[in-house]
Fold these 3 entries.
Entry 1:
Amino acid sequence: MNLTNRFFATLSCILLVATTLMNGQDRPTISQELDGFLTPTAAIFSPDGRYLFVLNHSQGENGTLRSQSYISKLAVKEGGEVVPNEMRFVKNLTAPIDLDFSPIRYANIPKGAIFLAYGTPLVQDEAGRPMRNLSRVSIGIMIIDPNTGRQIKRIDLGPNSRIRLKDELSLLSPSSLCFDSKGNLYIGESGVGGHMFERKQLGRPGIWRIEASAVEELLNGHTPRGQVDLIRTTSLPTDMTFREKENMLYFVTNHTQGRPSGSVFRISAGQYQGISSMQTIVRDLSALTGIQIMPKGRVLLAGNSGELMFPRGKKDTRPLRFRPRHEFSSPGKIALLQMKNGPIVIAVPEQSSEQSGGKGQRVSIVTLPAE
């Protein structure tokens, strides 16, 4: 081998080793596995990144259990370590679904207050049977002080309430909730269970878009006169997130008839122009449970298969690769935080207990290098 060939062979080996080391450093790591939760279904970081809130949804064989769910509050240290702060921060909840923090002040509701979507018609009674009399079932929004856990206000938006979201339509079975930066509120509606109430209602899956002025009217106990639209979807909305840089709402839907399949869409947070303005990101995947947007705009998904993944093309994904290989136990709605010192922290609630074949009801903390 002459000197030139030997030089290039040596250079290739150096580049290969360097690439391998760099790839190893770029891999995600499971930095923590936090126990002590009860079917954790959703996680969200506070706007200042100092806290992680986790929804614990207590369920029986025939529906959610009344007044047995709660919200956990955990502190996030400067290096990204997550430690318990108050595991039962808000107690005695029934079917907590999703939460977000108000980006603006609404009358006497301060900026940063927790808005919690709660309620379902699928409730188990004290004898362990599905509840037939739903006259006492409340479905709506609860506003909570994020510092004390005190309930500020509760608004019943379900069929038993005198308030209507639009025309004669109520909130039936919320699946997700988020705000855009202007204070417009979005609530995912699965449309399940409308026939179970005395005032029967045809369930329509979609996303409620409630303008900020209409949110304030709801907080005052009035049927809103401001702009309220139901963005119709052909499948059940599961999770959503808003990206301020694009002024876009990203959301996940799941088709549950036949083979479960998930899709991801986005829509402008401006004035709703109908279903034609909906853009497809990826479709016909396996069932999806959560969505977040990475700092540089990549879509990150959680799948019922136990993987975190990125869309690749319109009908495929690329998994977030761990070494050794790692799968999550029935991941729920994931949370994402960009740390000031660079790393990205992802909180993954895992719902399956060891008794049901999972790894325990816990929250795994994933750490990624900065993009």
Note: The mean pLDDT is 89.
Entry 2:
Amino acid sequence: MTDPQPPDIDAELVDALIADQFPQWARLPVRPVELQGVDNRTFRLGDELSVRLPSAEHYREQVAKEQHWLPRLAPQLPVPIPAPVAVGRPGRGYPWTWSVNRWLPGETALAAGAARGGGDVAFAQDVAGFLRALWTADADGGPPPGTHNFQRGGPVSVYGDETQEALAELAERIDVAAARKVWEAAVTSPWTGEPIWFHGDVAPGNLLVRNGRLSAVIDFGTCGVGDPACDLVLAWTFLDGEARAAFKAAMRPVADDAMWARARGWALWKALVTYDSHVPRVMAEARRVVAAVLRGGLSQPGGVSSDRTEAVTTRGMSAASSRPARSSSAAPLSR
């Protein structure tokens, strides 16, 4: 039996769903957000609301999770997070439940270019402050790793087969020996603490900024309770220079070398499996992240760059763009 296929998730569909199920908002304009995610499609509804619809069957579990847990997490966090207002039913050919949330003002860090050009230390410290608050939130009864979040919060070794396959395919194009050391450090540094809350997708598309400071955090679709190491990947995927150093310093009281090793493994896995993405932006980002991950010590998110590593990491980029894209069930998420 195949998964149900939704119709095109566009403003026309959202407008019809709203008119059918929430007539009080039927006169409000529906506009797609500029930066769409992979797991969900998001639309602005009037000036104060947003509509968020899963894009495929394997993302549908995230709706009920966010509806239940976000109101419980919000009072424990230093910046706003999405506030569910209503839950929509299947309709008009769309097969899953969906959410109406409060609109959160701000620009994504990706669009704003925060932490670029040497890095924005204040922004990095803001993100660290948010994570430290989230990690200390009451985790009693929270969702453990599973299909709802593609095993975020569990051991990174769950993606061992994908990682080894990618390393084999990239054997002549990156420093595989260095990558294997990073991976080995990640899978041999187990989490031994109690399960705690994590976001699961701390990416620049999910971090909103105003005046250069973190103003909100969105997209909790991959959140859960477990090992929070995956929340540290921003050190390689976005932050650089002084901002990266400030982020690590701010997280030092709660993130030891073993956690940084696991985080580095999460960053490496994702970059490897998207290294030959057919989407140019994703491919370029994956290659930049691989280069960043392969620099420095095994437990450090930075360090002195190696000319050899840089050269071998980017070797064959032009030829690779014609290769079939690797896929991952846990593709990057955004607003």
Note: Strands lie at 30-32, 40-45, 49-54, 84-88, 98-102, 107-108, 196-198, 207-210, 213-217, 224-226.
Entry 3:
Amino acid sequence: MGVPLWLFGGKFRQVGRKRYKGVPCRPGRERTEACSSGSQSSSTKSVCLSIMSATSGIAVSPELATTFADAVSSKNVRFLKISIQNEALVNDASIPPSSTLENDLNRLQSLLDDNIPAYVLVRLDDPPSAWLAVHYVPDTAKVRDKMIYASTRNSVTKSLGATNFVDTIFATSKEDVTPAGYAAHKRHQAAPKPMSAWEKEIADIKAAEREAGGTPYNANAARQSPFAFGTSVGLKWSDDVEAAVRNLAEATGDHLVTMTIDPSTETLTLRETTATTADELKNKIPSSDPSFAFFSWSDTALERRIIFIYSCPSTSPVKHRMLYSSGSGSVYQTAKSLLPTLLLSSRKVETSDPHELDASFLRAELGKSKEPSRVGTPSAGLPVGGFARPGLHKKR
């Protein structure tokens, strides 16, 4: 349904059903000053906005439809200017091509008026069968003209065949349809779409994978498991790392073995082996780089266990996070073959902040704390033997 023509009839009077130019005022609209008025009340603006979102009902004239059909078949028209006259879309001017599109765009400066809206259909060079629709509505145009052209623009392309048009420019000044303005429009169309923080991180991970030649990243799997980068990725163990882990089975008291990955050879290297308490772990685990650790712990609330700890600080580079995440599963599986089954804990501990590691944290992560954990419920929703996802346990 088109917009009623009484909305465009001029000023409305503060009277009942008086006529203006032969068109009666609609009841309930007496307080509206006019959409064409320079100063509008809030009620007038709401009426104007509703008009702009509607269809005006103005149709393409038969002459314009014939002219455009001839231009499509003959390919001898560069610009076809369309105006609204007597409540119909008519051909206002036709200009043949004289050079390339970029050079011909300079001719639009004399074709368009500074204060009067218009539609311009532009034939492209590649392919020559494609057209560009320019909706030219200058900022200095009358409000009434802006509304009429805004509510009619869809009728132009639909009535003339939407498949003929491959692009659209909404111009508010002549500068928007100069060669420089059109070049800026094409750069904007070709520019990458803005990404969210999550999408940007995924893009960085994919770039790191391409550089490392790794397995393609699976975003859906990553939401299910922190080791979705590929738990089948194996790492070489240096002799001293293997010996240090084996010795934990015979150790008495609390002992810690920390190890890192040499990226050039993808080999586990020993960082440190030391006697320490659970409350001192925060000072023993690297705070800025990822690392793996095996902690032999004798606790009053637990039987003696060797706990696998995967620390991945959020400030570490994406490439390092990917490397450690992809290898953590194989590190644990290899340790199972080196240590007695009942001694190695089936629960693993992950953290993105090593400073939170202490005795109460380990008890909570291992599900042995009798008091509510200060970091939430780490065992909720995790399968037996699963990892606590870095940084997420605080949000549970």
Note: Residues 5-52 form one domain.
